Amino acid sequence: MKKENLTLKAAVYTILIFYSLLTLFPFVWSILTSLKSTAEIAGGGTFFPETISFSGWETLFASQYTTWVRNSLVVALITTVLNVIFNTMAGYAFARIDFFGRKFLFSLMLLLIMIPAQVTMIPLYIVVSNLNLINSHWSIILTSMINIAYIFMMRQFFVNFPAEVEEAASMDGLSHIGIFFRIVLPNAKPALATQAIFIFMGVWNEFMRPLLFITSPDRFMLTQGLNALSNQFRNITAWDIIMAGAIFSVIPIFLLFIFLNKYFIAANDRSVGGK
Asked: Is the dihedral of CA 230, 64, 197, 181 positive or negative?
């Protein structure tokens, strides 16, 4: 029996190690490609660079790359904070507050999830244009500050949250607002962290909205700026520059995941354990 367990464990670890290496391969390839010259990349070459070249990195930082990173960072942080606040409050309202039309509004909200984002792009552009927000970062923030999927997620979290805790707080004289901020939120850290990670990643990697709303190079978001930078090289694809920019752009997401990792794992443990 023990031998079978050891064999099974060895097989599982072998699969996991293989999958990890397979997942890391594109990232390693990107790093090595960023250290090659454009001529070496165009000529095929080997997996490892024949000669280390930092021309891609030099070209990258000679552009407005740091400005684009700053723009994306500011927009992503503001949008994430607003999403966490509004999605969580809406989820709590749908789960705990009995108001007129609650079931109808929740059903309508679920129907809106089925509408592809591409369908709403033109109406969204018209609204943003009428508000005179074209070429403003607020056009991205205001059109991304709520997310129906995460409202649904937070609603499900609060439905499963022990009602006895809130009832005890209510008996002590706390209002819905007091219960929400003093009792519920401190116990919702795993769900909040999960939401924050995915929302930040979504805004950080957003390409379509910046392409629609932002026109000035000094206000470009990171994805938009990298695309514009690569388009400057019309006859060749400057993979060294693109890979250098892509690698550097992963750092903020990596740091956010490290910071919120323990809460993210706790949320997954609860969902798997059914608690």
From this structure: negative
CA 109 – CA 149 distance, rounded (Å): 9
Q: How far apart are CA 36 and CA 30, in angstroms?
A: 10
Convert the pLDDT of each residue in 82-127 to its tens digit.
999 999 999 988 888 888 888 898 888 888 888 888 888 888 999 9
Cα–Cα distance for residue pair 266/269, rounded to 1 Å: 5
**Is-contact 267 191, C-beta < 8 A?**
yes
Nearest C-alpha neighbor of 221 from the set 240, 239, 208, 234 = 208
Nearest Cα to Cα of residue 200 among 75, 69, 71: 75
Rama region for 135: left / alpha / beta (φ>0; ψ in -120 to 50; rest): left
Instruction: Please report, for the chain, the start and end positions of each structural domain, with discontinuous segments joined by +.
Output: 55-273
By CB neighbour count within 10 A (0-12 exposed, 13-18 middle, 19+ buried), where does 176 fall?
middle
Which pLDDT tens digit goes with each residue over 31-57?
888 888 777 777 776 777 877 878 778
Q: Which CATH class is domain 55-273?
A: mainly alpha
User: How many residues are recorded in the chain?
Assistant: 275
For residues 218 and 221, what is the distance between their CA atoms, to the nearest angstrom?
9
